Amino acid sequence: MPVSPRILSLSRLMAWLSLAGFLLVPAITIYVFVYPDTSQWLMFNIDHLGATLNGKVPMNFRLMALLCEFVSVGFTMWALWSLRRLFTLYSRGEVFSAGAFRALNNVALALFAGVVGTFIMQGPISYLLSYPLGAGHRYISLGFGSGDVANLFLAGVVLVIARVMAEARRVAEENAGFV
Amino acid sequence: MAIVVNLDVMLAKRKMRSKELAETIGITEANLSLLKSGKVKGVRFETLDKICAALQCQPGDLLEHRPDA
Fold first, then answer.
1. What global pTM score does this model have?
2. pLDDT in tens, A45-100
3. Nearest Cα to A110, choosing from A67, A164, A152, A65?
4. Which DSSP helix (H) or strand (E) runs through B33?
5. Which residues of B make CB contacts under 8 Å with A?
6. Which residue of A has its CA nearest to B31?
7. For residue B36, what is the nearest residue in chain A, using CA coordinates?
8. How many structural domains is chain A composed of?
9. DSSP code of A140?
10. Complex prediction ipTM
11. Whole-number average pLDDT of chain B
């Protein structure tokens, strides 16, 4: 059954937005770490750092923290790239293809991994950013907030939808064999 | 498969072309061709009803069970 033109055009738009996100997220993250004092206008909130990110932190510590931050950014990029792939397939009318199921599954896995990666890297990032404060002021911060719970819930939802889509694909394949 | 589709025979008896039948019952020629060659998993009652109406026959005229086929 052909997919409606509205879904095709919406999917094309979402694929472009996902690609934009894929390119913007790492770029903005780098900008925020390199120019922390002049990046407030972006309102790009990195609330899981566990330490204050400002220009007083030496650049080499900020760059090391940025490297750690890229663990979670990497998973976000993976999720956005998988979303781009998913919507590209939808825009071609491949709603029930194996590729679409794989892409949706990858989005869920990337979201899960992102939450875990963010939690793990929070310790090193907070230590690196607080290191220049000197002995007695350095700390390792670990936290699991409502944002992480929301992300985990979202990942779970996407994972369940991916499983349902796999079942829908099986039914669609079966239907395709009927005349 | 043990189910044999005799649609070809009925089309010949009624002197009707596949294209004409496909247009009458509203399915593609490709799907009708698959049905004729028995390369489908199943036939919907709706399709069977339309074919029977178009060819003025019974489902038994179109489908045959041959255990050794």
1. 0.73
2. 666 665 678 788 889 999 999 999 999 999 999 999 999 999 999 999 888 888 99
3. A152
4. helix B29-36
5. 27, 31-32, 34-35, 40-44, 47
6. A179
7. A179
8. 1
9. -
10. 0.71
11. 91
